[in-house]
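User: Mind token order:
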Amino acid sequence: MKALNVAASGMMAQETNVNVIANNIANMRTTGYKRQRADFQDLFYQTLRRQGSQTSDSGTLVPAGVQIGSGVRVVATPRTMSQGDIEMTSKETDVAIRGEGMFIINMPDGRTAYTRDGGFELDATGTLVTQDGYTVSPGIVVPTNARDLTVSQVGVVQATIGNDTTPTVLGQIQLARFINKAGLEAIGDNLFLETAASGQPQIANPGDEGYATVLQNHLETANVVPVSELSSLIAAQRAYEMNSRIIKAADEMLSSTAQMS
């Protein structure tokens, strides 16, 4: 009975859906996290009577036909890359992005990663790094005798050095944009990698046309909406239960058929 396989595919699809929702809820307090959703597609159909086929010598045609579906599958789990809320932290190395763009991160293995997480630190050499110690491109070093570190809205990093009375420019934070942000590959640690689907990064300074500005002493929160996730979770649970009932009903029908034979 096809209903068993169809319902089983529905249960597996909803299991994946629940996993995606659970990950969103688990990352509600993850800086710069972007929520995902599960997208579905129906599977191939068995055609028992084709639409438009001729039914008589006079040329009458079948208006609808008969097609039996094979179930459902998860085809994608795209990310919603909308802006999260901005929260004040009062930490001078925290930087939030307001608008389009991602920070550029130089990985130890030579790869370039991208992130919305602006919770930066200074390492032992004074270099601006992520919380995992990865260098924020293009590599900004803050001297040990620097004070009053500032990051302007256009990404200019300045500090007052030693006994100087005027600040010194230490570097320029840059941002990257992608034509298809949903095509980026998430690798954990709040990092993404470029893929063929995302297109190549377009790099510019904050505040340039089409690019975000940045805000020091702030962080961007996850764009997860708890009420929406709980609503989606309930809907997924109900869909899973209905598919399980179909399997139970199909089993009872098969049992009745076996008892009749």
Remarks:
- The chain has a mean pLDDT of 92.
- Residues 2-80+224-260 form one domain.
- The radius of gyration is 27 Å.
- The chain has two helices and 20 strands.
